[in-house]
Design goal:
The complex is a heterodimer of chains A (about 160) and B (about 700). The termini of chain A are far apart. A nine-stranded mixed β-barrel of chain A has the order 1-2-3-4-5-6-8-9-11. Chain A has a domain of about 110 residues. Chain A is built from two helices and eleven strands; from the N terminus they run H-E-E-E-E-H-E-E-E-E-E-E-E. Chain B is α+β, with helices and mostly antiparallel strands and about 700 residues long. Chain B contains four helices and 25 strands. In chain B, helix 1 packs across helix 3. The chains are: A mainly beta (about 160), B alpha+beta (about 700). At the A-B interface, strand 8, strand 9 and strand 10 of A face strand 19, strand 22 and strand 23 of B.
């Protein structure tokens, strides 16, 4: 009964968040211009300093999909602020996938951000992202709980809207 | 010191047992009394409301009937009184002149002048006698006293009462009822030395050691046991009160509620009815009374006026004869009476000096630890300067010194009097002044801190009071303590308590001065319970620190805390400062951890899913990485090897950032290879951006 409760909560949290807010659409860049992000419709693309990119369409997350080491940009509502969408964007290294006693873990590139659903005046002007290539994704099948994050030496980056000329 | 170990042995056997017994008894009684009073008050108030309703109804009915009857009666009475009074006034006016004229005529025919002359002569003589004794008798006394004071002091002496004193225990006196004395169960001073003098010295040395050992250890053990037993007994007492009989409170509530409402309703109805009935009855009664009373009043006032006239004329005739006769008689008798009164005064004072040949010239109450502070437990003794006016020695056995607590309730609680009375240790020499030191004995307890305690000193000679004097003193610790900043805890993390110690005496402390932190709860781990202060000069302040860790998931810890300053510079530890208080200490971590699953499976072994709930309590950082690490500790807090238990998957785990006030569950699966011992610990450490923010311990 308790396990089912956790699964239900996990699904509920991930539901209804598969579209990126209209106020967030546009191009963003870090202060040094090395990291850029473009949000367009339900898609987003991030380009990093070393040239590699993350590109995905916002989608619902299920524990099953995550435990299969499938990359994706997953959205969920903030539990404390109804105007915030939490972004959990993963790009797992399938070779590192391990499982024991229904607990699954893997190494993964991880990007975490918080987006406003609605901006009172105009559009979103800036957004913080937490990004690492050596993060973790963890899924516990029996409880439906999942986790993921970055090591301690990871620092957030502020991206600001690039104004049209 | 010989005997000290034996005294400590008795204290060890008795202190904890007697303290626990007292704590349990007093705690149970206090708990019961408090809860019984609270419940009784509720029962009382409920019954009070019902009584009020009934009382209002009954009071209105009875009040109206009684008020009407009373209005009629009062009108009759007052009208009668007023009519009679008017008749009296008029009759007095009419009778005054004729009556006084009649009186004066009768006085002129009396013996007033002859009587005045006789009385004047007699009073003049007796007044001269009285005046002579008022003036000359005390002059005779004063002259004798002056002559005694002029007598030379033939010798000056010193007497120490120390040899008569009971050894005073240096004790805190906390929770002590009366004087706690050893029963000497381990007393053994039978060792024999080569000479009688050595043996006698040993016996005295042993006795002091025994009393010292008992006196220092017993109060500490007693206090500890008392405090431990008090709280649970208090709670049990409260539970017992819940099943008590409250019928008396309900009955009292109903009765008092009814009585009050009845009185209000009755008084209102009564006043209205009596006011209506009064005026008619008054008018009829007034007219009747005037007619009835005028003539009798006239006769009475005529007689009074006659007596007034007689007395005025008589007194004038009497005084005219009295005054010259009095003056002549006084002048004639005074000088003879004055001489005899002076001699009588001298004789009386000479006899007084025979009965009370002593005088106290000065009295002080002295410390035995001379540092300017009356410390709890410090023996205090009197110094008295006595003058003997007599030409012969005063026998020591006839001079008694006593001390008592002025307020009986202080005795045994705030002040312990060990030597309440003594005879002088040595005779007083003829015509001498003697300093008597180390007299009597008392000490203040910790209960007397910051209180004014008055003791009464008395010196008697052959049972007659020579001197009585009160001394008011206040107990203070040698040092004071102050929290420099509010106490705070963090679960699993080290925090610091800073205490400022001030020496308020006029002597430095020893290098062995320390502060101890006493906090008896499993929710706080004190890493360093003792801090060395070292030498503290008079007036000097020092700050010492204590390190501690919270071991609780509660948001605050509410327990008694004590900081105690001790000085063991003299070889034995002495308490010289204490700060006790009940404090609600907040436990403030940025993150809070709780366990959301049953870990007891780890006792048997196998797979255990440890589900934790993490809450961001205070961290305002956004998008900072979180890292959780699980460790396994034995009951004695040693790290267990991976052969006992290990985490499935990465350890540490990286978990998603958590915004302020949000909570989330996460899982750490654990394989326990062999059952873990009861009391083993799952210790979870959480770091935010590399900094440890909470260490939570789950005990199996």
């Amino acid at each position: 009964m308790k396990k089912m409760g956790f699964i239900a909560l996990g699904l509920l949290a991930l539901a209804s968040a598969c579209k990126l807010p209209a106020d967030t659409k546009g191009k963003y860049s870090s202060a040094d211009g090395k990291i850029t992000m473009e949000i367009k419709g339900s898609k987003a693309k991030v380009t990093f300093a070393d040239g590699h990119t993350l590109e995905a369409k916002a989608t619902d997350l299920s524990v099953q999909i995550l435990s299969e080491a499938k990359a994706g940009m997953y959205l969920q509502n903030s539990p404390t602020d109804e105007n915030i969408l939490e972004v959990f964007w993963v790009n797992p290294d399938r070779k590192t996938l391990q499982e024991q006693s229904d607990f699954v873990w893997m190494k993964s590139e991880v990007l975490i951000a918080r987006l406003p659903k609605k901006v009172s005046k105009g559009k979103m002007q800036e957004v913080q992202i937490l990004h690492c290539v050596d993060g973790q994704v963890l899924v516990d099948r029996p409880t439906g709980l999942y986790e993921g994050g970055c090591p301690q030496d990871t620092y957030p980056t502020l991206l600001s809207r690039v104004s049209k000329r | 010191m010989a005997g000290q170990n034996d005294g400590q042995a008795e204290a060890t056997e008795r202190g904890a047992t007697e303290g626990a017994l007292a704590g349990a008894q007093i705690g149970a009684r206090d708990g019961y009394d408090r809860c019984y009073a609270s419940q009784g008050q509720q029962e009382y108030q409920s019954s009070y409301a019902q009584g009020s309703t009934d009382g209002n109804r009954d009071g209105l009915n009875v009040g109206a009937n009684d008020g009407n009857a009373r209005g009629l009666a009062d009108g009759q009475r007052d009208g009668d009184r007023e009519g009679s009074k008017m008749a009296d006034v008029q009759a007095a006016r009419d009778a005054a002149g004729p009556g006084e004229q009649q009186g004066r005529l009768e006085a002129d025919r009396s013996d007033a002048a002859a009587r005045g002359a006789v009385a004047g002569r007699s009073d003049g003589d007796s007044d001269a006698y009285r005046r002579a004794f008022d003036v000359e008798y005390p002059r005779g006394q004063r002259d004798v006293r002056a002559e005694m004071e002029k007598l030379p002091v033939l010798s000056r002496d010193w007497i120490s009462q120390a040899s008569l004193a009971q050894p005073l225990m240096a004790s805190s006196g906390q929770n002590q009822v009366g004087v706690i004395q050893p029963d000497y169960r381990h007393y053994d001073d039978s060792r024999v030395w080569p000479t009688i003098e050595e043996t006698d010295a040993y016996k005295g040395y042993y006795r002091n050691g025994y009393l010292d050992g008992f006196g220092r250890l017993f109060p500490m053990l007693y206090d500890q046991a008392y405090r431990s037993a008090y709280t649970p007994a208090q709670q049990a007492g409260c539970q017992k009160a819940a099943s008590a009989d409250y019928s008396a409170q309900r009955r009292q509530g109903y009765d008092e509620g009814r009585a009050k409402a009845y009185k209000i309703a009755y008084d209102s109805a009564y006043a209205q009815a009596s006011k209506s009935a009064y005026p008619g009855a008054y008018s009829v009664a007034q007219q009747f009374a005037y007619q009835r009373d005028y003539q009798p009043f006239y006769q009475k006032h005529f007689e009074l006026a006659r007596q007034r006239g007689y007395k005025a004329r008589y007194d004038a005739l009497y005084v005219a004869a009295y005054d010259p006769a009095h003056t002549a008689a006084y002048a004639k008798a005074y000088s003879g009476y004055a001489a005899s009164a002076y001699q009588a005064g001298r004789a009386a004072e000479t006899n007084e000096f025979k009965l009370k040949p002593l005088k106290v010239l000065s009295l002080t109450l002295d410390e035995t630890i001379p540092n300017g502070v009356f410390e709890p437990g410090e023996p205090l003794r009197f110094s008295v300067k006595v003058k003997n006016y007599a030409g012969q020695a005063i026998d020591a056995s006839k001079v008694k010194l006593t001390v008592t607590a002025a307020n009986a309730s202080d005795s045994g609680k705030n002040v312990i009097i060990s030597d309440a009375s003594q005879l002088l240790a040595k005779n007083l020499k003829p015509q001498s002044e003697t300093d008597v030191t180390d007299a009597l004995g008392l000490r203040l307890t910790e209960s007397a801190i910051k209180k004014s305690i008055t003791v009464n000193f008395e010196l008697t000679y052959e049972g007659r009071r020579i001197h009585f004097e009160s001394k008011t003193i206040t107990a203070s610790f040698l040092s004071t303590l102050r929290l420099v900043s509010p106490l705070g805890l963090q679960e699993g993390l080290t925090t610091q308590a800073n205490i400022e110690v001030t020496n308020q005496s006029n002597q430095p402390t020893s290098s062995k001065t320390k502060v101890k932190m006493l906090w008896n709860t499993s929710e706080v781990e004190i890493l360093q319970p003792e801090a060395t202060v070292g030498v503290l000069k008079p007036g000097e302040k020092k700050i010492v620190s204590f390190l501690m860790k919270g071991r609780t998931t509660r948001s605050q810890v509410d327990v008694p805390i004590a900081f105690q300053v001790t000085d063991s510079g003299s070889g034995t530890e002495r308490r010289i400062g204490l700060m006790e208080f009940q404090s609600q200490v907040p436990v403030m971590n940025d993150y809070r951890i709780s366990i959301d699953s049953d870990l007891s499976g780890a006792l048997k072994g196998g797979l255990v899913r440890a589900i934790y709930k993490i809450t961001n309590q205070n961290s305002r950082l956004v998008l900072r990485p979180l890292l959780v690490t699980l460790r396994f500790l034995s009951p004695d807090q040693k790290t267990l090897s991976a052969t006992t238990a290990s985490v499935i998957g990465p350890n540490p785990q990286y978990v998603r950032p958590l915004e302020n006030k949000a909570s989330r569950n996460f899982v750490i699966p654990v394989v326990v290879n062999q059952g873990m011992a009861k009391g083993s610990i799952f210790e979870l450490e959480v770091q935010e951006e590399g900094e440890v923010v909470v260490i939570h311990r789950g005990v199996l």
